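Researcher: Final request for today, and then I'll write up notes for the group meeting. The sequence and the SMILES for zinc ion follow.
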Amino acid sequence: MNRIVKKIELKHKGKNFIITHSYQNGSTSTIVEDSSGVEYPRQSRIFLREKAKQLGLYENGYLYNDGIEVDTHTYFRNIHKITPSGLKQGGILNNSDLYNVFKCGNSGGMRKSNTTNSLLIISDHTKSLYDDRWEEDVLYYTGMGQTGDQSLEFMQNKTLNESGKNGITVYLFEVFNAGEYTFRGEIKLVKNPFQEEQNDADGNSRRVWIFPLKLKTVEKEVRLKDLKNIIEKRENKIRKLSDEQLIKNIANSRKVSSKRNVETTTYERNQHVVEYAKRRAKGKCELCEEEAPFLTKDKQPYLEVHHIQWLSNGGEDSITNVAALCPNCHRKMHALDLEIDKSKLNEKVKGDFND
Ligand SMILES: [Zn+2]
Ligand SMILES: [Zn+2]
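Model: Predicted protein-zinc ion complex:
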């Protein structure tokens, strides 16, 4: 099949962007570049694609097939022929993308797609105060059926249970932000489903089926940022529960914690910069100016070195961007990051250790 490419140019924050949408052999890809050819990360890619849609650029943009303009109908007909094999791990789909690809219903944790002969497993972190349980790379997924005992013969429980022999492909999507489905890849049953006691929404105990599932390939791990975001949102919801509800939920929770592998970024910091900040502080927190709360085993004042402009926001690892803080002030900077505190620290770090 010919490669079909559609290029769209648009302006954003005074910069020019080029969006290239291409379709080949059943797979589509969207790339956003600025005029210097720099690719943009996923978030802004999504943003710009949405922007392009809002601006109607997808309808009015140019469409090329090996350099020859093609009518948009052909293009869209091809786009609608996207097969799941064209989905990329980590790619984010919205509800209408999901419908275009799979032609399946838009609710429920398990969705059957007859068009593609597949079953979608949706692990939606935004819906429940509880989360699906992961143990390293195995997802213990609770079957279908909201109340009463669950049955292995029931709808998609049956489909999933028989997925080793019914020829159906199972895909996992995770939702970290409402309406955004992150494609995680093809998933398979790794052990036989088993039964477990769980409370239903009304707090009544019942038997559910648990399906141990594992991704066939893991190219991209879940981002720490996405998980933190979910935890934060859940924290806000839990804070609003009544005391009774809180106690009830604890009673209904499993006692084994969930653990999963995440993709993290670690910054290798210049230890000389760390040491310099500590010497400059002379044993006192550079924010509250109190003595360090205790001495380390090596009899050094315990202070933590913090980047005033965070490394994750592009801050420099330099002596004028670090401050030695007591643990309380350090937590405060991470929780609040107040301007008044930052400007105090920025003043402080101008001095050197002879002052
Ligand atoms: Zn302090
Ligand atoms: Zn810090």
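Model: The mean pLDDT is 78. The pocket of zinc ion (ligand 2) is lined by residues 306-307, 330, 333-334 (CB under 6 Å).
Researcher: Thanks, that's everything.
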